[in-house]
Protein: Nucleoside-diphosphate-sugar pyrophosphorylase
Amino acid sequence: MSNDTGRTAVILAGGLGSRLRPYTVVLPKPLMPVGESPILEVIIKQLSRKGFSRIILAVNHQADILRAYFGDGSRLGVSIEYSLETKPLGTMGPLHLMKELPENFIVMNGDILCDLDFGDFFANHENDNRLFTIAASKREQLIDYGVLGCDADHLVSFTEKPRTPYLVSMGVYCLSRRVLDFIPEDEAYGFDQLMLRFLDEKRDVNVQTHEGYWLDIGRPDDYFRAVDEWPDLRTKLGL
Structure:
């Protein structure tokens, strides 16, 4: 499928799923079910509804199982391509293996459940001619103790069970093709390394905060929570 017929999304689906063992010994992590469908199928359906007709799956571990399940994507109304790593390349390194990437495209993990509007996220990035946009979710760290502030051995402050808000990457990014110039070829290169380079070179990276639902189902606690909450979220997403 040519790039001008629809939006393109790259889905990172080659992880080992170590945190979900023993469940992922048999199934690749993106095929872990949420309700009656694998999480990766949920993601592809969400993307399809927002005009993403070309899906590139970056695969490695158990790639044949993913190919057998999804095929060419026609069952889901999209075109699916498979980009196979012969060695681990991190989150950003695999992009150099992909042919004819468009001017702007989404890159995302294949194991997240969220209600982010992928279409609006993409449009905001494209319309502003951005280099890189990160979708972020608000989280809060609770310290379950009374925290002492001290000057040497003297108490100067006390806070009972403080909560600290922070933003985390959701594992959903929108990229300009210009980003490829910053990623070395044929070596492992991660999102973290790319962000540190951008900061060092004072490149402009946008962060779009998502106020809605987001879970990383690669974490066992989040996976079981996702299974419990899926009926309500499915209704909200119209899937």
